[in-house]
Design goal:
single chain, alpha+beta, Nucleoside Triphosphate Pyrophosphohydrolase, two-stranded antiparallel sheet, 15% helix, NUDIX_hydrolase-like_dom_sf, hydrolase activity, hydrolase, NUDIX_hydrolase_dom, NUDIX_hydrolase_CS
């Protein structure tokens, strides 16, 4: 039996769902799809840096300050972020939605990130 497919929602630049596709196909074709990431800080403001497990399909063994991954079909950004914290760090925590960003990237042959394009939209403060 082959590996289970991981399905994600392909979206347009306004984050509207276009359809459901295989995550590996979305990555290979640079299709936009939803990803949730979390930055973990302690009360002193220090940021957690962690090492990704060697068995990860993306960036195995690399150090990163973001914890996250692709949102599952029908999952909100907050649900995806909380799930990824539990999966990657074994942490159960409430997450706070801060901003949404459009991010597109390409790689150079040695695997180093070569080009990033961002468009971020800050979320309004609660109650304000």
């Amino acid at each position: 039996m082959g590996a289970m497919r991981e399905l994600v929602e392909q979206v347009d630049e306004q984050d509207r769902v276009l359809g459901v596709v295989d995550r590996s196909e979305a990555i290979a074709n640079h299709w936009l799809h939803r990803v949730a990431t979390t930055v973990c800080r302690d009360p002193e403001g220090r940021i957690l840096v962690h090492r990704r497990p060697a068995g990860m399909s993306r960036f195995p063994g690399q150090y990163n300050w973001l914890i996250g991954g692709a949102a599952e079909v029908g999952e909100t950004y907050q649900e995806a972020a909380a799930r990824e914290l539990a999966e990657e760090l074994g942490v159960q925590a409430r997450v706070r939605f801060v901003f949404k960003a459009l991010r597109q990237w390409t790689f150079v042959p040695d695997g180093v990130e070569a080009l990033w394009r961002y468009r971020a939209q800050p979320m309004p403060k609660p109650g304000g």
